[in-house]
C-alpha cells in the first residue's frame, strides 16, 4: 500500500494531557485525512462544528425482489477492506506531538472521541501512565466504555479494541516490536490508520511486519 507523506499544516495543540514539544522545534504536522465517519459527539471542551446529520432513510425494497443473500466468508473479506493509510513524517522525539496534532484535527473535523485509538511504540502517553496508576481494570474499562479517546502502548495492542481511527506515534521502541505493532494497529483500524514517524523506517517496518 503506498504511503503518502503530506506537508505540515497544523496550527493548534490538543487539550488534556499533552507531551511538551522540544524547544526550538516547530510543532507542525500534516493534516490527516478525516475519512468516513459516523455522527460525532462532542469531546469535553470541544463542540462539534455544525448540526449532526440525520440518518438517511432505509432503502425501500423493489417489488418482486427477493431477500438479500447471506454474506459469505468471501463477501465479508471484501467488505472488510484495508483502512486508509497516512504517514506523517516526524522524528522520534516529535512523533507524539505529531500524533496529538493529528488527533486535534480529526476531532475538529467531527470525529467522535470514542472512534479514536492512539498507540505509542516508545514511552507511554502521559494519560496512559496516569490512568494505569488507578489499576489495569479501571484503565481497560475506559476502553470498553468507548466514549473517549483511548491511549495505549503498542506493546498492549493485542488487548485494544478495533476503532474507526488508529493513530500510531513511532516515538521509540526497537525495530522488532514496532514491526509487529504496526500490522496489529492496521488490523484494528476500520477506516483510517495514521502513522507518525520517520517515513523510511516506517515503510521498512511495515514491510518487515507483514512477514512476521
Briefly characterize the structure.
The chain has 212 residues and is an alpha/beta fold.
Q: What's the helix-strand series?
A: HEHEHHEEHEH
Strand order of the largest sheet: 1-5-4-2-3
**Number of H/I helices:** 6
Which value, in Å, is the CA radius of gyration? 18 Å
Structural notes for this entry:
It is a single chain. The relative contact order is 0.20. It is built from 6 helices and 5 strands. α5 links the parallel β4 and β5 (189-197). The chain has helices at residues 73-79, 95-108, 126-132, 136-145, 175-188, 199-210, and strands spanning 84-89, 116-120, 150-153, 163-169, 189-197.
Please render the helix and strand layout as text.
Elements: H1 73-79, E1 84-89, H2 95-108, E2 116-120, H3 126-132, H4 136-145, E3 150-153, E4 163-169, H5 175-188, E5 189-197, H6 199-210
Parallel strand pairs: 1-5, 2-3, 2-4, 4-5
Helix pairs in contact: 5-6
